From TrEMBL:
Subunit of the oligosaccharyl transferase (OST) complex that catalyzes the initial transfer of a defined glycan (Glc(3)Man(9)GlcNAc(2) in eukaryotes) from the lipid carrier dolichol-pyrophosphate to an asparagine residue within an Asn-X-Ser/Thr consensus motif in nascent polypeptide chains, the first step in protein N-glycosylation. N-glycosylation occurs cotranslationally and the complex associates with the Sec61 complex at the channel-forming translocon complex that mediates protein translocation across the endoplasmic reticulum (ER). All subunits are required for a maximal enzyme activity. Residues 1-29 form the signal peptide. Component of the oligosaccharyltransferase (OST) complex. The keyword NAD does not apply. The lineage of its organism: Eukaryota, Viridiplantae, Streptophyta, Embryophyta, Tracheophyta. This is Dolichyl-diphosphooligosaccharide--protein glycosyltransferase subunit 1. It comes from Arachis hypogaea (Peanut).
């Protein structure tokens, strides 16, 4: 039977599950007398990192101005939510402009249990009868479930995606539509919530009209996704500043293929001779986007240096393409280290108040990768004081002390930690600190003292040796 003609099904759900998760109360009143005139949601499932683009046209029906719009996320979404962005739009098509808006986590006392809310602050309050259009982007990780959970080398990877055909919102929604884009035309099955249809790689749910607050209609899509599920379980990036002209970066990776687990034997001969038919969901190449003017690049794992890499550089960017020692199938892991040096003048600057600051990029250099835990350490020169980190999102921060060669009092280390990091977190951040130039003489002085002591010890040894020979 052709794939397009395969019958669809409705997901059977038990009554307790429906009552506890999906039939959320509809009698709560929203914080403001707002309603959503139109909601269009586009869900991109072409990668293991799910991107959702949401367009909302909001109207104020109340008598008092409204300066905030609330976004609601189900407990399952909240658990895997990586980032939420919003912007106000004006104009149409090519002349459309986007103005970023402030988005913060919030709580609504009348919200259903487990629902997570975010508040979008409007540029100007909406008066009665006025409307505003918002563009929202939110990203979900670890939200595709492999099914079957184990596959052989020759099988394709199939996954489940769970969501709602109807937008979960604290407001009344006049009209809404949901589009779901899959990586290929192979869709095993999907839940039908009329009206719903499929064309090529796109599923369309809706339009649905006059949905009350907190409406929810679960859907399940079973489809093929052979994209690499590259997940870094832990990444430690150490950025060490030297005022003698260099920034040294060391990155320690613990990588895993988070897709369907590999079962059975692995045939390297078959993998190399039939790359299009075997191991289609595995990956053997990784791409790291590094800063321009990078130098002294190395790549090694637990065994030693790995030479299967290619570095491309120009004045705008550097790209390091490399291969682990073996291809990664579902459930397989690899640990490795990437290190490189950078010119100090490209990343260290002086602020008007006399402080120095490092301007670097947060996040993970590997493309299309989720980082479960990122630890970023900025090692300041010895003698640095009053460090302050400026970063555009919430992270955990603390200070450490590190001792290196010829150090006397140790170096201050600014530690930034964040979970669930995606490529959209690769944004600039700054670390400010004060530094007395007199500390530039500390290491040469210590080195001179060490050489002097070595010379004295050598002379004393030679004198003692000559005395004994006499």
């Amino acid at each position: 039977m052709p794939m397009e003609e395969q019958p669809h099904f409705r997901v059977p759900l038990s009554l307790p599950l429906i009552l506890s998760l999906f039939l959320l109360p509809t009698s709560f009143s929203s914080t403001h007398d707002l309603q959503i005139l139109n909601a269009e949601r586009r869900i991109d499932l072409t990668s293991h990192i799910i991107k959702v683009y949401l367009t909302l046209k909001v109207e104020n029906l109340g008598t008092s101005p409204a300066s905030e719009v609330h976004l609601a996320f189900s407990p399952a979404e909240a658990e895997h939510l990586a980032i939420v962005k919003a912007a106000a739009t004006s104009g149409k098509r090519k002349k459309k402009t986007y103005i970023p808006l402030d988005v913060k986590s919030a709580e609504l006392p009348d919200g259903p249990n487990g629902t997570k809310f975010f508040t979008v602050t409007l540029l100007t309050p909406l008066n009665k009868g006025e409307t505003a259009t918002l563009e929202v982007l939110y990203i979900l990780t670890h939200s595709l479930e492999p099914f079957p959970v184990e596959i052989t080398q020759s099988e394709s990877q199939l996954v489940y995606f769970r969501d709602s055909a109807i937008l979960l919102s604290p407001y009344h929604v006049k009209e809404q539509t949901t589009f779901i884009k899959t990586p290929s035309t192979r869709v095993e099955s999907f839940t039908v919530v009329d009206p719903a249809k499929r064309a090529g790689t796109e599923l369309k749910y809706g339009p649905y009209e006059d949905q009350p607050p907190y409406s929810y209609s679960p859907v399940l899509v079973h489809f093929e996704n052979n994209n690499p599920f590259a997940v870094v379980e832990e990444l430690e990036r150490e950025i060490e500043i030297s005022h003698w002209g260099n920034v040294q970066v060391t990155e320690r990776y613990r990588l895993v293929h988070a897709g369907a687990r590999h079962k059975g034997a692995f045939s390297r001969v078959e993998y190399q001779t039939r790359p299009d038919a075997t191991g289609v969901s595995s990956f053997k190449h990784l791409l790291a986007k590094l800063p321009p003017r990078v130098h002294s690049v190395y790549y090694r794992d637990e065994i030693g240096n790995v030479s299967t890499s290619n570095l491309r550089t120009d004045y705008r960017k550097s790209e390091l393409e490399f291969q682990p020692r073996y291809p990664l199938f579902g459930g397989w892991k690899s640990t490795f280290v990437i290190g490189y040096g950078l010119p100090l003048q490209d990343f260290l600057f002086e602020s008007p108040d006399g402080r120095r600051y490092l301007n670097f990029t947060f996040g993970c250099p590997l493309t299309q990768t989720v980082v479960d835990k990122l630890i970023l350490k900025v090692v300041l020169p010895e003698g640095s004081k009053d460090p302050t980190a400026v970063i555009p999102f919430q992270v955990d921060q603390h200070l450490e002390i590190k001792y290196s060669y010829l150090d006397v009092i140790g170096r201050t280390v600014v530690v930034l930690e964040k979970s669930n990091v995606v490529p959209e977190h690769n944004v600039p951040f700054q670390v400010y600190y004060t530094f007395n130039p007199i500390f530039m003489l500390a290491e040469p002085l210590m080195l001179s003292i060490a050489i002097f002591l070595f010379f004295v010890a050598s002379v004393s040894y030679l004198h003692a040796d000559l005395s004994i020979r006499k």
